[in-house]
Write a structure and sequence with these properties.
- The chain is an alpha+beta fold.
- It has one domain.
- It is 30% helix and 21% strand.
- The strands form 2 sheets. Strands 1, 2, 3, 6 and 7 form a 5-stranded antiparallel β-sheet that branches. Strands 4-5 form a two-stranded antiparallel sheet.
- It is elongated, with a radius of gyration of 31 Å.
């Protein structure tokens, strides 16, 4: 038998090929599971943001539904000036279902309503308050003059911020609505 060759075929995997294949498979599975965990956290964060946005919109709608001259007295931080008597109005803080206030929050509520007041006199609206978010200082009673008088009973324009701050799954969350309520 002249010129016959025997060929040897290799069958199966070597130990190195098997180890490399397993390493690639493990890296792929870990990457996929990390993606699932990240997607789940993002979904929870989105639900928290949706809750905050919905709560802020609801509070804003409640404010718009009020008699305009009573809005400030019903939703400020002072209870003594509530239209129905002390302690009868909703006030400036509000709860949000499913959200927890940040650590150290003064009233323990994630929601707050902010008006152009001075910290020394939260019962009074002042045109001279400096707050860019509220567009202040500004003429609030329509007399053409920005003055330091108390305008909590004669405002025609009322800047307001509705803010929700909470401690969530991925850390602190924050949502804010800014608007100008008017009575013309």
């Amino acid at each position: 038998m002249a010129g016959t060759r025997t060929s040897r075929r290799r069958s199966g995997f070597t130990l190195i090929e098997l180890a490399v294949g397993m390493a690639i498979l493990v890296i792929g599975v870990l990457g996929f599971s990390q993606s699932l965990v990240s997607a789940q956290k993002l979904d929870v964060k989105n639900r928290e943001m949706d809750r905050a946005a919905q709560a802020a919109r609801e509070v804003m709608e409640r404010m718009r539904a009020e008699s305009f001259p009573d809005v400030f007295r019903r939703f400020n931080t002072v209870t003594a000036d509530d239209p129905g008597g002390a302690g009868t109005a909703p006030g400036a803080g509000f709860s949000v279902a499913g959200l927890t206030a940040r650590a150290g929050d003064a009233d323990g509520l994630p929601g707050e309503i902010i008006f152009p007041t001075l910290s020394a006199s939260p019962e009074a609206i002042h045109e001279t308050v400096v707050n860019a978010q509220l567009g202040m200082p500004r003429d609030l009673n329509g007399d053409g003059v920005i003055d330091a008088a108390d305008h909590s009973t004669d405002y025609r324009v009322l800047p307001v911020i509705v803010r929700v701050s909470w401690r969530g799954v991925g850390g602190d969350g924050y949502y804010e609505l800014q608007t100008m309520l008017a009575d013309y």
